[in-house]
Automatic annotation (TrEMBL):
Single GO biological process annotation from the record: iron ion transport
Naturally occurring in which organism (per UniProt): Pseudomaricurvus hydrocarbonicus
InterPro entries: Beta-barrel_TonB, Beta-barrel_TonB_sf, Plug_dom, TonB-dep_rcpt-like, TonB_rcpt_CS
Similarity remark: Belongs to the TonB-dependent receptor family.
Motif TonB C-terminal box per UniProt: ranges: 770-787
SUPFAM superfamilies named in the record: Porins
Pfam families xrefs: Plug, TonB_dep_Rec_b-barrel
Signal peptide (residue range): 1-33
Protein name: TonB-dependent receptor
């Protein structure tokens, strides 16, 4: 695709003409196919027989409960049954059911995932930087990303909202949002308990108990535990032999209480606690640069040290799940939080909602970045203490004979934390090289918002919203070795040891918003056109130690234009649902972390705004339900992302050929569910399968095209992940012999595919590349009892 010269200049090459034609074909032919059937799904006419419907999915994409088929947003939603059926217990699993989502790991930190939607992704999950895709639990943002992957249990639904969310959600994001909705207490005393076991020593439990205390007060207590040995084996000689990685322990619990204070006032309170102690996921060494600083280790014998080349040779000749490391890697987190939501209904046309939340996170991580058993080459540790609070006040109503639905409100968000990052660089050669990096942040965000939807008639409606956000950020950073301050002034001279810190403050503000037009000729068909502006606040580099790294980076923005259709139709007795979206995103002032040289010998980095990019995409989701017992879902996503302009600030070099990382051009998901009722009420047999395909991708975002070109051509495969498939299967027997017992068995990664989730690529700078691999084939069984 040729680079566009202006936001309104969209140039389509042949493959985009095909995608556009496919969109037009979907929009034009689906209603025609629907007309083959005399009766559509929803709202059957009184003179026609009622037909079976595809289950309606309720979403809260516009802060109201409504059908996913009626909102002008591309959204993938999974209900509680699908989450259980496909054993989705981690946010990372969602990418195998939504091809536009990518969840990756830059350096093996399982509690610090990086989320991407439609190619919009931060370089990494780093202290003090806002995510591009925000995670919400019960309408409250879990930001920053560290620890946001906890809590994927006892959920009523998961919603993936695609595209910039610039109006109704508290933390504006340029990529999208993932909404986690916990189950609410039931009206009768009941419980369900699950016990499971599986490969690599997995033992798991999950429970949910409904306790209706009075007619107006009810609680639900839910929890989940896992204990796993891990799939990696440390084969380094000596005392580390036999150490398992990739496993660990998780404990989570959630208490939800609903109090109907009166007929017009409801108060919901959610208490959460999550504790995880994982062994981490050790990187695997891919390349070593003989011309880099690591050459000191490559000879081995002159220094009495093991050779990096020997370690590389061993890694290249063994299974990727066998690793070498000189330390026990850890990824620990202890998180607790409280959410209180109070709703007051003044009348049927006006209500007030208050959402207050507080969250506290303590985390500890150790990563062996050099992926060898050689002591002190490159190790990283992080201790994080973070708290954040938020308050949102919404006024919701309808007016003009219910033709206008509106919401307006205000929002406040606060985060305060400190992160200590001790590490070792070449300690085996220079014992003075260990360093301590400390970053302290104090951030506040304030916003006002308003959005309304006006229904002109039974078919046409328009929605418009606006938000104004003000972010006030402060970061103090310090770095020192045992002997010296490792912070430098503008001249390159080290700061005095008693003044070894730099304080940075900056404020950012941005209006954002959305406009959409919807056309619904009947209850089963909707076409829409929407445009949105999303904003991600600027900030500072928590790793800064010299002038080029101190500079604050500006906010990034995404403006998109999306055309879509959502259609329920039928062909004879086959029920169909076809949702399609074609979008164009103008991505400006992109925040990118780039590698830079550092005087103290550590791999340095700076954060800069990488000018402009365009992302064009086409997404289609097809649901086919031939019978009540059989459902097939297919999704195809095409993404064309490239930089329109990117110049290196210091040298003026053109970096616009840098690829978009973790963004496959083609991605595909498929799932099938089949149930078979047994005779004599002896239960129901279930079978389900899912498959996900991802095109080849570039892995580490620190690699600009300049650094890629400095990597030998025969080694560039270490920067990429080839295309691969992941396949999962599940078998179940519900209500065994008429009882309340359910049995199920599953297998994930059926074909035992080797695939990388991320890595650290520092070949031209520091001198090595590593990859972090996903889990091999694993399986398990679960027993669930309800009473």
């Amino acid at each position: 695709m040729k680079k566009s010269q202006a936001p309104n200049a969209v140039v389509l090459h042949s493959r985009w003409k095909k995608s556009l034609a496919a969109t037009a074909l979907s929009i034009s032919l689906t209603p025609l196919a629907a007309s083959v059937q005399a009766q559509t799904n929803a709202s059957p006419r009184s003179d026609q027989p009622s037909l079976r419907q595809i289950e309606e999915v309720i979403v809260t994409a516009r802060r109201r409960e409504e059908s996913a088929q009626s909102v002008p947003i591309a959204v993938t939603a999974l209900d509680a049954g699908e989450l259980e059926e496909f054993n989705i217990s981690d946010i990372g699993d969602l990418q195998y059911f939504d091809a536009s989502l990518n969840v990756s790991s830059s350096s093996g930190r399982p509690n610090a995932p990086v989320y991407s939607l439609r190619g919009v992704r931060p370089t990494e999950a780093i202290f003090g930087q806002d995510p591009t895709v925000a995670i919400y639990l019960a309408d409250v943002v879990l930001s920053p990303a560290k620890g946001s992957n906890l809590g994927m249990y006892d959920l009523a639904s998961v919603q993936v909202l695609k595209g910039p969310q610039g109006t109704l959600f508290g933390r504006n994001t340029t990529g999208g949002a993932i909404l986690l909705t916990p189950k609410k207490p039931g009206e009768v005393i009941s419980a369900d308990i699950m016990v499971g076991f599986g490969s690599y020593g997995l033992m798991e439990t999950e429970f949910g108990v409904d306790l209706p205390v009075t007619d107006t007060f009810a609680m639900r207590l839910a929890g989940r535990t896992t204990d796993e040995d891990g799939h990696q084996k440390n084969v380094a000689p000596g005392k580390y032999y036999g150490d398992k990685r990739g496993g660990g322990e998780n404990y989570s619990t959630r208490l939800t209480a609903i109090w109907n204070v009166s007929e017009t006032i409801q108060n919901d309170t959610i208490l959460t606690w999550d504790k995880t102690d994982l062994n981490g996921r050790t990187p695997v060494l891919q390349t070593v640069n003989p011309s880099s600083s690591l050459a000191l280790y490559n000879g081995g014998a002159p220094f009495g040290l093991p050779s990096m080349f020997d370690a590389l040779s061993r890694a290249q000749n063994r299974d990727v799940h066998k690793i070498e490391s000189d330390m026990r890697e850890r990824s620990q987190a202890d998180v607790w939080g409280i959410i209180n939501t109070t709703t007051i209904d003044f009348n049927e046309n006006l209500s007030l909602k208050s959402i207050a939340a507080y969250r506290d996170l303590d985390a500890y991580e150790v990563v062996d970045l050099d992926a060898t058993a050689i002591p002190g080459v490159l190790t990283s540790m992080q201790t994080t203490e973070l708290e954040h609070a938020s308050y949102e006040l919404q006024l919701l109503g309808s007016a003009l004979d219910s033709k206008l639905d509106w919401v307006t409100g205000l929002y406040w968000y606060y985060e305060d934390g400190i992160e200590d990052s001790p590490g070792n660089v070449f300690e085996g050669i220079n014992p003075a090289n260990p360093f301590m990096q400390t970053a302290t942040m104090h951030n506040n965000s304030y916003s006002l918002f308003s959005q309304g939807t006006y229904q002109f008639d039974n078919a046409w409606s328009v929605a418009a919203g606006i938000r104004w956000t003000y972010d006030d950020k402060e970061l103090t950073t310090s770095s020192r070795t045992p002997l010296n301050c490792a912070m430098f002034d503008d001249t390159g001279a080290p700061l005095p040891i008693d003044q070894c810190s730099v304080k940075m403050t900056e404020s950012f503000s941005q209006p954002t918003g959305t406009v959409s037009i919807e056309y619904q000729p009947n209850d089963d068909t909707m076409f829409y056109a929407s445009t949105r502006l999303g904003y991600r606040a600027g900030g500072f580099n928590a790793r800064a130690s010299r002038a080029v790294e101190y500079q604050p980076f500006d906010p990034e923005t995404v403006v998109d234009l999306e055309l879509g259709s959502k259609i329920d139709w039928s062909l004879d007795q086959w029920m169909m649902r076809t949702n399609a979206a074609f979008y164009h995103q103008w991505y400006d002032d992109i925040q990118r972390t780039v590698a830079v040289d550092n005087p103290v010998g550590t791999p340095g980095s700076a954060i800069e705004n990488a000018a402009e990019a365009t992302v064009l995409g086409f997404e289609i989701e097809q649901t086919v339900s031939p019978t009540e017992n059989l459902t097939l879902k297919l999704q195809y996503v095409y993404t064309d992302a490239e930089y329109a302009k990117w110049e290196e600030p210091a040298s003026g070099k053109d970096l616009s050929d840098t690829p978009f990382y973790f963004t496959p051009e083609h991605a595909f998901t498929a799932s099938v569910s089949y149930s078979y009722p047994l005779a004599n009420d002896t239960g129901v047999l279930r079978f389900s399968a899912n498959a996900a395909y991802q095109d080849d991708v570039w892995l580490n975002a620190l690699q600009t095209i300049e650094l890629i070109d400095q990597t030998p051509a025969n080694l560039r495969s270490s920067l990429q992940q080839d295309a691969f498939w992941l396949v999962g299967l599940s078998l179940g027997w519900d209500n065994v012999l008429g009882s309340k017992l359910d049995l199920s068995a599953y297998v994930k990664n059926l074909t035992d595919e080797e695939y990388a989730l991320g890595g650290v690529m520092l070949y031209p700078t520091f001198g090595l590349s590593t990859k972090v691999y996903g889990e091999p084939r694993n399986y398990g069984m679960q027993l669930r009892y309800q009473f």
